[in-house]
Specification:
alpha/beta, Rossmann fold, 21% strand
């Protein structure tokens, strides 16, 4: 393991340059990220072959945006012949590695690179990148706020807000990018000066064959780091902490037990030690709720200090940060019960952290699209903390089998019915919590639409 580091050193390597003028670039997937890639590469003189498996009739907005650009687009099918003459393929994050065009590109020796890899080859600003199963968006947003409080011109992008590639042509002091395992599958030269790996738990097992392959994809966040860079790791996550032995960068860590260098919790304070200094942040000063958010604050603090932010800026931003929408978001209190929207809790690990954040009985609404893995690990917390378990969606039968014996359980048809049952079950002092542990795609476009629907239903009670 490298020696503990608390700040990045100046870069000494040359930046890779990719020539796009006159090149033929296949963009696979023409949603938000794909369209951003098309705009970027055509501005630099490339021609595009755009491909999307959705039918042309579903892609009217994309077709309108692409019409004036040097792009030939194919919808509703995937033909290996379209790779003829293609110099590189940029798949959108949702396109799996076993996609026929990606398999054929690999067979032909055509370079495949993700949007964040492409963007990083043109970006001039230093990057901080955040990955993990849970907490990415909160940590990314909080780290951005800390750097802004330090007077830096900084953006937050990637898997949050706009794609990273949309920021490349502007002048920034730092870029903070949230990156998923999907985005990291095709990186080689993507080099964050500060890289955070928050935690790892079962998720996306409909795409990966197990925790090891899922974690290995996320660990590619460190693949191009160098000794002057910093890796921020969770000491309390065995899989993540085990990476320290394989990294070439410096390591700074966070966790709940005391360390000589890094962040930890002592009583009712977060403590940061580094460079011979010690700083303390009282937990009562934080607006964020939940044990998982204490971990997010520690991670962001370590990264912000590594990026050069001073103690006062870090503390000010941490005190003021209100949290993000759909992650343990307080909605209202009604008849003595408090309602929380945790629609972004789309896996079992997220639900565990959310339940652990309350010391009162919980009426839990869960369910949606099963993403692989087991719900059995939730049973102890459900038994201990859940008064009523309300299940809906495609995963409801699986969740009932795993958890039905641990709490009074009912299956309902939709979210309006779930909210009605929850209100009837809740007692003064209880928490009503939407924390699905599943994707939303059986009933909603995404977790945000599900969360907004829940808030509207609760406000209408």
């Amino acid at each position: 393991m490298s020696s503990v580091a608390t700040s990045v050193e100046p870069a000494t390597d040359g930046k890779p340059v990719m020539e796009l003028e006159g090149k033929n670039i296949m963009v696979l997937g023409l949603a938000r990220t794909g369209l951003a890639v098309v705009r970027f590469v055509t501005r630099r003189g490339a021609r595009v072959v755009g491909v999307d498996a959705r039918a042309a009739g579903q892609m009217e907005q994309a077709r309108a945006e692409l019409a004036p650009l040097p792009a030939v687009c194919h919808f509703g099918a995937e033909n290996p012949a379209w790779l003829d003459g293609v110099d590189a393929v940029v798949p959108s994050p949702g396109v799996p590695r076993d996609n026929p065009l990606l398999v054929e590109a690999a067979r032909r020796g055509v370079e495949v690179l993700s949007e964040i890899e492409l963007a990083s080859r043109f970006a001039s600003m230093p990057l901080a990148a955040v990955t993990g199963t849970n907490g990415k968006t909160t940590t990314t947003s909080l780290l951005t706020a800390m750097l802004e409080a330090a007077g830096q011109r900084v953006f937050a992008g990637g898997n949050i807000g706009k794609p990273f590639i949309d920021y490349v042509d502007e002048d920034w002091d730092w870029g903070v990018v949230e990156v998923s395992s999907f985005q990291l599958e095709w990186v080689r030269e993507f080099r964050p000066r500060v890289a955070l790996f928050l935690n790892l738990s079962e998720d996306h097992l409909d795409r990966y064959d197990g925790l090891e392959s899922y974690g290995a994809a996320k660990a590619r966040i460190f693949a191009a780091q160098q000794p002057g860079d910093v890796a921020v790791l969770n000491r309390d996550d065995p899989w993540v902490w085990g990476l320290r032995r394989r990294l070439s960068s410096g390591v700074v860590s966070f966790g709940w037990s005391e360390v000589d260098a890094g962040a930890f919790v002592a009583g009712d304070e977060i403590v940061w030690r580094g460079g011979g200094a010690e700083e303390r942040l009282p937990l009562r000063d934080l607006r964020l709720l939940g044990v998982h958010n204490v971990e997010n604050v520690m991670a962001a603090l370590c990264a912000a200090r590594a990026a050069g932010a001073g103690a006062r800026a870090v503390e000010t931003a941490a005190r003021r940060f209100p949290g993000i929408e759909h992650r343990l978001e307080f909605v209202r209190e009604l008849d003595g019960a408090r309602y929380y929207n945790d629609s972004k809790g789309t896996n079992v690990g997220a639900v565990e952290k959310s339940l652990a954040s309350f010391d009162v009985p919980v009426v839990l609404i869960a369910g949606g699209v099963h993403k692989g893995g087991s719900y059995d690990t939730l049973a102890p917390l459900v038994r201990e903390r859940v008064r009523k378990l309300i299940l809906l969606g495609a995963s409801a039968p699986l969740m009932r089998t795993a958890l039905g014996a641990s709490a009074d359980t009912v299956v309902v048809n939709d979210l309006p019915a779930a909210v009605c049952v929850a209100r009837a079950a809740a007692r003064p002092g209880d928490v009503v919590l939407l924390s699905p542990g599943c994707s939303s795609f059986d009933m909603f476009e995404n977790y945000a639409e599900r969360g907004r629907a829940f808030k509207e239903l609760v406000q209408a009670l």
